[in-house]
Specification:
Radius of gyration: 20 Å
Structural class: alpha+beta
Bound molecules: flavin-adenine dinucleotide
CATH superfamily of one domain: Electron Transport, Fmn-binding Protein, Chain A
Number of strands: 10
Largest sheet: 10 strands, antiparallel
Shape: globular
C-alpha cells in the first residue's frame, strides 16, 4: 500500500490543462470538497458504453466508498474496473458583459482509479457507517445498524483517492477590454446549498426526539 502524502501527484490524465492555475492537488483541498459535497457523479463503462450516474458516497482517509443494490448495473460494472468519480460544488453564476465570458464559480474534484469490491462483513459495515455519517455526522450511532440481510443485498466499492485533482474558480467575470463600457450588468450571483427547517415524519410515535443538526457547509476556502 502506498503511503499517504499531503498531495496527489498529477499524472498525464489527472493534470488540469486548461486554466491550470485553477488546479489543486493538495489532499486538504481535495478532501475538503469531497467532504462538503453530497452527490458524486460516477462515470463507468458498461459493454463499451460510457454512463454517468449520480450517487451518494463517503470518505474515510484516502478511501471513498460507494454502495448500492447488488443488482445495480453501475456498481457491478465498476467492481475491479476503472471509474471516474466527480463532485461539484456550485458557488455562483458569473455574468459577464459578453455572452462568451459567462462562467460559474465552483469547487470540483475528479478522482480516477480502479474501484474494488468490499466483501468482508466488518469492512462493509464500516463503509455503511462512513456513508451515513457523510450525510449526517454521528447518524450511524443513532440509526438501527444494517442487519445481515441488508448487508447481503448491498454491494460496496472502495475507490482510493490516489489519482485526481481539484479545480476551483472564484471571483468575478473576466471581460475583454473593449467590452468594459457596455451597458450590461456584470458580476456574480452567489449560490449556496442551505438546509431548510426540519420536517419531522408525522408518523413518528415517540415524542421529544432531538432533531438532527446538518453538518457545516461552506467550511472550505481556496485561494
Ligand atoms: C460547474 C462547472 C461548469 C463548467 N462549465 C464548463 C463549460 O461549459 N465548458 C468547459 O469547457 N468547461 C467547463 N467547466 C470546466 C471543466 O470541468 C474542465 O475543467 C474544462 O473543460 C477543461 O478541462 P481540461 O481541458 O483542463 O481537462 P482535461 O484535459 O479534459 O482533463 C484532464 C484532467 O484534469 C482534471 N480536471 C479537469 N477539469 C476538472 C474539474 N472541473 N475539476 C477537477 N479536476 C478537473 C481531471 O483530473 C481530468 O482527468 C466547468 C466546470 C464546472 C465545475
Amino acid at each position: 500500500m502506498t503511503a499517504m502524502t499531503d498531495s496527489l501527484t498529477p499524472t498525464d490524465r489527472s493534470a488540469v490543462r486548461r486554466l491550470a492555475d485553477r488546479g489543486h492537488y493538495e489532499r486538504a483541498v481535495v478532501n475538503g470538497i469531497l467532504d462538503e459535497a453530497y452527490v458524486a457523479h460516477v462515470g463507468f463503462v458498461v459493454e463499451g458504453q460510457p454512463r454517468v450516474l449520480p450517487m451518494t458516497y463517503g470518505r474515510d482517509g484516502d478511501s471513498l466508498y460507494l454502495h448500492g443494490a447488488v443488482g445495480n448495473a453501475m456498481l457491478r460494472a465498476s467492481a475491479d474496473a476503472e471509474v471516474c468519480l466527480t463532485v461539484t460544488l456550485l458557488d455562483g453564476l458569473v455574468l459577464a458583459r459578453s455572452a462568451f465570458h459567462h462562467s460559474m464559480n465552483y469547487r470540483s474534484v475528479v478522482v480516477l482509479g480502479v474501484a474494488t469490491r468490499v466483501d468482508d462483513a466488518a469492512a462493509k459495515r464500516h463503509a455503511f457507517d462512513v456513508i451515513v455519517d457523510h450525510v449526517l455526522p454521528g447518524r450511524s450511532q443513532v440509526a438501527r445498524p444494517s442487519n445481515d440481510s441488508e448487508l447481503r443485498k448491498t454491494l460496496v466499492l472502495r475507490l482510493p483517492i490516489e489519482e485526481g485533482s481539484a479545480k476551483v474558480r472564484t471571483g468575478g467575470p473576466i471581460d475583454d477590454e473593449e467590452d468594459m463600457d457596455l451597458p450590461v450588468w456584470a458580476g456574480v450571483i452567489p449560490l449556496r446549498l442551505t438546509p431548510g427547517p426540519v420536517i419531522q415524519d408525522p408518523t413518528q410515535t415517540i415524542p421529544g426526539l432531538p432533531p438532527p443538526v446538518p453538518r457545516d457547509l461552506w467550511t472550505l476556502t481556496v485561494d
